[in-house]
Write a structure and sequence with these properties.
Two copies of one chain form a homodimer. Chain A is of the alpha+beta class. Chain A is built from nine helices and seven strands. The first copy, chain A, has two domains: 140 residues, 2-Layer Sandwich (Beta-Lactamase), CATH 3.30.450; 92 residues, Orthogonal Bundle (Helix Hairpins). In chain A, 65% of the residues lie in helices and 14% in strands. A five-stranded antiparallel sheet of chain A has the order 2-1-5-4-3, sandwiched between helices. In chain A, strands 6-7 form a two-stranded antiparallel sheet.
């Protein structure tokens, strides 16, 4: 799963907490992502914003210093402190969430010892800063003990880690939820499909069953009726041979028998050649097979 | 959804953060649930643990003071400060998560002004505390400005709220997960049931279809065969009446016809009385209706 620190926590709330923390402790926390983009920024010193970051040469030193400090964090779990090329101190620690280095925490700028005013006076001259205003900015930079800063960094890294881990857990749960929701949808669709298929299949099965029943019944009829019909046919042949046309009424009766035996044979023939299921209405609540339509002949 | 603060956050981690916060700021945070059970406890003063909470009368005052302070929090969103009956100051704020008052945050004990040693000397005498040791304990209680404490409480309540809200979100996501998992299980079971039902239904539909097909075919056979058979029967009657027993062979042929017409009529009768689907093997790959078994007669 890909994630940045900003995906895991509410950065506006973290910004508010960082401001509150700065007012309470005098330690200004900032957070950047691993590419150096600022996510949370508190209490940047006037000496940085109004002087060092405004002059191209001192700005170049700021960037170099930031890069150097970030480099020191790679693969580390503790924190690093660094005296920047413009003479201030910064402290940084990696924020590791789910074994992933997602951001860097900075606490700076400050001095660990009272500043060397001579150094800064010279620096003002070198870069053409207004000496009075520049030294006022130097005086506003807090002087913090290393012990106090380490306590601050301990607290801040533990807090960032707790917030990040909770955020990661939320993110994992959210993704699991999406996955489960998709699964519910998939199961629901399959269920609907199955129910539709069932209806279709039922109609098909009834139809298939009907044809099978028709064919089996037709087979039985052909089987059972054929033999008696054949005997009848022989008997009619015999009687017609024996009796000839001597008696008109007898001759007509024999011809009627011949016609009916032939009609029955043709019916049996149709029954034997049924290939499809075709019905005709017989009465209001009864339908029967339409032999002509159902039979191939 | 029911929840306590301990359901939402990792109390061990909060305890670690509180200790780290106390070392950094000198402000000792504690958290109790709304029933007063201690969840997180940091930096309790020796004057409380070794003196006030050991003597029954001063302990009684502690409990009264705690109750009074907690009462001040009910329905409030800000914080309350309270000078306890034993002379120390405590500050408290409700922790509201998801519009629910789940816990109270305390920062204490401390003094807002340098302590009145005379008051504590008298208190030592009243309750028989060792004066030197008691006054040493008094001296160890931090003196914190109201402004600093308010900054501390602001930070701590914002933090407790953020952690609690994240925890609540986690909890809601977890419950949604459980709900979704149950839904997936329910849908899966219904799907399996539907598939089984489909198989059963298909078998039933085939069987129903077969019977219907048989009955429709039987109806057709009875309908088509009856009329020619009846005519045959009349013709046989007529010829038997006309020809009598004059000629033995003719008589036998007529009797054979009578027998076969009767046989066919009986078959039609059976066909008309089919009520169930019963088959017999006819050849290797063909089965036909068993008229005797299928017919009610």
């Amino acid at each position: 799963m890909e994630y940045s620190f900003g995906d895991l926590v509410d950065l506006d709330k973290i910004q508010g907490l960082a401001e509150s923390f700065y007012r309470l402790t005098g330690i200004p926390p900032s957070i950047t992502d691993v590419e150096g983009n600022v996510l949370v920024k508190v209490g940047w010193q006037r000496i940085c914003t109004e002087f060092h970051r405004k002059h191209p040469q001192t700005l170049e030193r700021c960037v170099q210093s930031d890069t150097e400090l970030a480099k020191q964090l790679n693969g580390k779990t503790g924190y690093a402190s660094y005296k920047c090329l413009n003479g201030l101190v910064d402290m940084a620690a990696p924020i590791i969430i789910g074994e992933r280095h997602v951001a860097n925490l900075f606490a700076g700028q400050f001095f660990l010892d009272p500043p060397d005013r001579e150094f800064f006076r010279k620096q003002a001259a070198t870069f053409g800063f207004d000496e009075t205003e520049y030294l006022q900015a130097v005086d506003r930079v807090p002087v913090l003990s290393r012990e106090r800063l380490e306590l601050g960094m301990n607290f801040l890294t533990a807090l960032a880690s707790l917030l990040g881990e909770m955020g990661l857990n939320q993110k994992e749960l959210s993704e699991l939820n999406l996955h489960l929701e998709a699964k519910v949808r998939e199961r629901t669709l399959r269920l609907e499909h199955e129910m539709e298929e069932r209806k279709k299949a039922e109609a098909e099965k009834i139809r298939a069953g009907k044809l099978q029943g028709v064919l089996e019944m037709a087979g039985a009829a052909a089987h059972e009726f054929s033999q008696p019909l054949q005997t009848l046919s022989f008997d009619v042949d015999f009687l017609q041979g024996q009796l000839g046309d001597n008696d008109k009424e007898v001759g007509e009766a024999l011809q009627s028998m011949r016609d009916n035996v032939t009609a029955l044979s043709r019916l049996i023939n149709k029954v034997q050649n049924i290939t499809t299921y075709e019905v005709a209405e017989y009465s209001d609540d009864l339908q029967i097979i339409d032999l002509d339509k159902a039979s191939q002949n």
